[in-house]
Design a protein that fits this description.
Number of helices: 16
Radius of gyration: 31 Å
Helix content: 40-55%
Shape: elongated
Number of strands: 11
Largest sheet: 6 strands, mixed
Distance between the termini: 35 Å
Strand order of the largest sheet: 6-7-11-8-10-9
Order of helices and strands: HHHEHHEEEEHHHHHHEEEHHEEHHEH
């Protein structure tokens, strides 16, 4: 069961990374569109790239001269740029060479010593959402910060968000401590709010509302899947996909372990185990041939609303009766007293199936958030003795 990602440290990691890739990237893309593309000329994204392709080219190829270097100067004096070849090809496509004198090679034919910038064209299909945070920061750095060109808002906040993203991308396991989470979430939240504040009062208000709602709500598997579908950050995307696959694998592991433990149930004279917990049997008089009592004791997490679950189970008991008939429900921890047909107990496979289906229906009718990974310990106590329904009702 060690493989189950139910620990809080995994939850902290997922909460922080989905905050950055969800709300964070929505704010950053809006910021880039409003404060950079639309600041003066209302440019389309590809027009912005074409306008700045000399700088961006030399961020990728700092030591290779281009046909515009004579009029613009070499894009970078350093020997290392902040754009990778893969990032550059996300933004631009390289067309057919038409200006032969703009292009030169060295002694080896594949060694380019001068590039024709005329054949490098920004992809028309791209929009701002083609950028992950690393690419966006590299573009802003190349086109503005390195040339001391001011833009509206504080683009340095992007660096703070990027630093947190880089930290999360390179931790060996998808887990962080609560103290790490609290510190980095606060820093990232402040950076996102500051960037959002440059987009107007209404946007700031909506942004704050979205952040507050995000902090209140539990993280769901569906939410992580949506992040995967809508994001192009390859490294983080791979980590999230691995997490989803682990959840599926662990769900199978849990079910197999339940089945294995329930398989130990041989009949009313032996001990049985369900959900990794002990099932006890107690003698209380004569054995009843029709029904037996089965008491469920659930070690519930603090997030469950037990009074509401108790009321729901009583109201919806008819939906669960085909597997176990609910007699009463108590809260402290959650205790459910049920009845089950003796022939179900005598049939190992039928008993196992009834336990599975009862728990599934319990989760459904009580609206338990099954997307939040949690391991719940369940004890089953099977009474072997005869029970007198009228005589024992008040005891329960």
């Amino acid at each position: 069961m060690e493989a189950v990602l139910s620990d809080k440290e995994c939850g902290y990691y997922m909460k922080l990374i989905t905050f950055i890739l969800g709300i964070g990237m929505d704010v950053l893309h809006t910021y880039f569109e409003q404060n950079i593309l639309n600041a003066k000329e209302h440019l389309e994204f590809y027009m912005f790239l074409d306008k700045n392709k000399h700088n961006l080219y030399h961020e990728c190829y700092p030591k290779i001269e281009c046909c515009e270097c004579s009029q613009n100067g070499l894009g970078m004096a350093s020997q290392k740029g902040c754009l990778t070849k893969q990032q550059f090809l996300v933004l631009f496509e390289i067309g057919t060479l038409t200006e032969i004198d703009h292009f030169q090679t060295g002694r080896r034919s594949n060694e380019i010593t001068k590039q024709c910038l005329c054949r490098i064209i920004a992809k028309r299909s791209n929009d701002v959402d083609c950028m992950d945070i690393t690419l966006m920061y590299a573009i802003i750095q190349s086109c503005y910060l390195k040339h001391n060109i001011a833009i509206h808002g504080n683009p340095r906040c992007i660096e703070a968000i990027k630093d947190t993203r880089n930290f999360l991308a390179h931790v060996p396991n998808p887990r962080i401590s609560k103290s790490e989470f609290d510190t980095r979430f606060t820093e990232t939240e402040q950076a996102i709010l500051e960037i959002g504040s440059s987009l107007g009062k209404y946007f700031t208000k909506v942004n704050q509302k979205n952040i507050d709602e995000f902090k209140r709500n539990d993280l769901s598997i569906e939410g992580i899947k949506e992040i995967i579908e809508n994001n192009i950050d390859g490294i983080i995307k791979k980590k999230l996909q691995t997490f989803i696959e682990d959840q599926r694998t662990n769900a199978v592991i849990i079910k197999d372990e339940i089945s294995e433990q329930l398989a130990k149930y041989k009949g009313p004279q032996n001990n049985a185990t369900a959900c990794g917990a002990n099932v006890e049997e107690t003698e209380e008089g004569h054995i009843n041939a029709t029904k037996r009592r089965v008491e469920w004791k659930l070690a519930t997490p603090s997030t469950w609303n037990l009074p509401e679950i108790k009321d729901t189970l009583k109201k919806c008991s008819a939906q669960l009766r085909q597997w176990f008939e609910i007699e009463n429900v108590f809260v402290g921890s959650l205790v459910i007293k049920t009845l089950v047909q003796q022939n179900v107990l005598d049939n190992r496979e039928e008993f196992r199936a009834s336990v599975h289906l009862f728990l599934e229906k319990f989760v459904e009718v009580c609206r338990i958030n099954a997307d939040v990974p949690t391991v719940i310990k369940v004890d089953l106590i099977i009474e072997l003795g005869e029970f007198e329904k009228e005589g024992n009702t008040n005891v329960l």
